[in-house]
């Protein structure tokens, strides 16, 4: 059903579409009721750039679905939980962090950035890649080696694995670590 209907008095949004919580419906409702994000200033504290996107604050009711690339995405279903943000601050929030903290909790002001990534995370990723390469080169017991990684390194390491390799390593992790991983992934999926 088309979201808009022609009526004698003009164009009317269908009531079905008005209640819809699909990604497309939420974004057209945002534009219709709050206007274009580009007309606002970015709401991140201390940012003086113009906004470009209606960016979800990662709070309130949400839905999960697949985007055009087939990747899972989460979006808010209440338009009051969106704020106008510039591209950088929209990306900060979209990737699971906040205006002031990266997704792993590093202070953005002191950590700095490497391209668009938190510099502290970038360092960890490089270190982890180095360790992974070394592990592959020396072919030691990977299950034993991952016990030495601290949590952010472990997450970065697991992120780089195929699902099969991931599944093979999970039984070697402690219950506490698995619970922490579970909480970590859940926090990326659901609003605080
Ligand atoms: Zn901004
Ligand atoms: Zn970081």
Q: Can you tell me about this structure?
A:
The radius of gyration is 21 Å and the shape is globular. 44% of the residues lie in helices and 16% in strands. With 192 residues, the protein is an alpha+beta fold. Helix 5 packs across helix 7. The protein has helices spanning 15-19, 23-34, 87-94, 108-111, 119-138, 142-145, 151-159, 163-169, 175-189; strands at residues 4-7, 10-13, 53-56, 62-66, 72-76, 82-85, 113-114, 117-118. It starts with a strand and ends with a helix. The chain contains nine helices and eight strands. The relative contact order is 0.09. The protein has two domains: 4-94, no CATH class; 121-189, no CATH class. It has a two-stranded antiparallel sheet. The chain has a two-stranded antiparallel sheet with strand order 3-6. One zinc ion binds next to helix 3.
Task: Give a quick precis of the structure.
The protein is α+β, with helices and mostly antiparallel strands. It contains nine helices and eight strands.
General shape: globular
Beginning-to-end CA distance, first to last residue: 34 Å
Q: From the helix content, strand content and strand pairing, which structural class follows? A: alpha+beta
Give me the strand/helix succession: EEHHEEEEHHEEHHHHH
Low-pLDDT windows of residues: none
Strand order of the largest sheet: 1-2
Strand content range: 15-25%
The percentage helix is 40-55%
Question: Mean pLDDT score, rounded?
Answer: 80
Number of continuous helical runs: 9
Bound molecules: zinc ion
Structure summary, number of beta strands: 8
How many separate domains make up the residues?
Answer: 2
Radius of gyration, rounded?
Answer: 21 Å
Q: Tell me about the biggest sheet?
A: 2 strands, antiparallel
């Amino acid at each position: 059903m088309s979201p808009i209907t022609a009526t004698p008095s003009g164009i009317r949004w269908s009531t079905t579409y008005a209640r819809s919580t699909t990604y497309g419906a939420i974004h057209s409702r945002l534009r219709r009721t709050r206007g274009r994000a580009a007309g606002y200033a970015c709401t991140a504290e201390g940012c003086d750039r113009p906004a470009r996107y209606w960016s979800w604050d990662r709070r309130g009711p949400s839905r999960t679905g697949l985007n055009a690339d087939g990747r899972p995405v989460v979006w808010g279903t209440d338009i009051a939980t969106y704020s106008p943000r510039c591209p950088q601050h929209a990306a900060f929030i979209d990737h699971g962090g906040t205006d002031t903290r990266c997704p792993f909790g590093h202070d953005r002001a002191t950590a700095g950035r490497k391209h668009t990534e938190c510099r502290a995370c970038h360092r960890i990723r490089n270190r982890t890649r180095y360790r992974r390469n070394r592990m592959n080169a020396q072919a030691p017991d990977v299950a034993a080696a991952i016990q030495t990684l601290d949590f952010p390194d472990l997450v970065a390491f697991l992120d780089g694995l195929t699902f099969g390799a991931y599944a093979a390593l999970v039984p070697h992790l402690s219950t506490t670590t698995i619970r922490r991983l579970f909480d970590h992934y859940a926090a990326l999926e659901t609003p605080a």
